[in-house]
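agent> Task received from the user: take the single chain below, predict its 3D structure, and emit structure tokens. No templates, no multimer pairing.
agent> Plan: (1) validate residues, (2) run structure prediction, (3) serialize to tokens, (4) report one or two observations.
agent> Step 1 OK, no nonstandard residues flagged.
tool_call: predict_structure(input=
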Amino acid sequence: MKKDSKLFQTVINLDIALASIALVVLVVCTFSGVIARYVVGRPFGWIEEVQAALIVWVVFGAGGAAFRTGNHSAIEILYEIFPASAQRIIRVFIGAVVVAVLAFLGYTSIQYLQLFIQTGRTTAVLHIPYVLIYAIVPFSCVLQIVNYFLVNVFGYEDEIEKLVDEEEQKS
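)
tool_result: status=success, residues=171
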């Protein structure tokens, strides 16, 4: 995939778009819930279910973007005391652990989704299928693994930073 292609830009920004939409809806729901509770005096009984679902989508939707842009928490002081040759080995080890954990989380989340499908489990008030709420998890794991390889293996870090800078300048 070419770094400057429209498809590449769409794939790179897909997680940001999902998380942004979920965040906007979460803010609107929360604001309307506050108005309904304190101004009108009639709180929404369903708002907590929607908020919980949207928080899942915001967290896992933004996980790939945070992973790609290096915004996850990291303790680098131990890593930096090693010589460059040891740092390369540590980087490969960390990458293998990260990919293994994300693959395990993605696999386990697919099993949970299958369980939700089999049982037909839904939320209590709105009867939202749990499959819809947690479907983002395996998708996010795949995006995070792809982002790891784009940045750390294929060296797309500079191109991704340029795309992020261009998006920030537009807004």
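agent> Step 4: summary for the user.
The chain has one domain: 6-170.
agent> Done.
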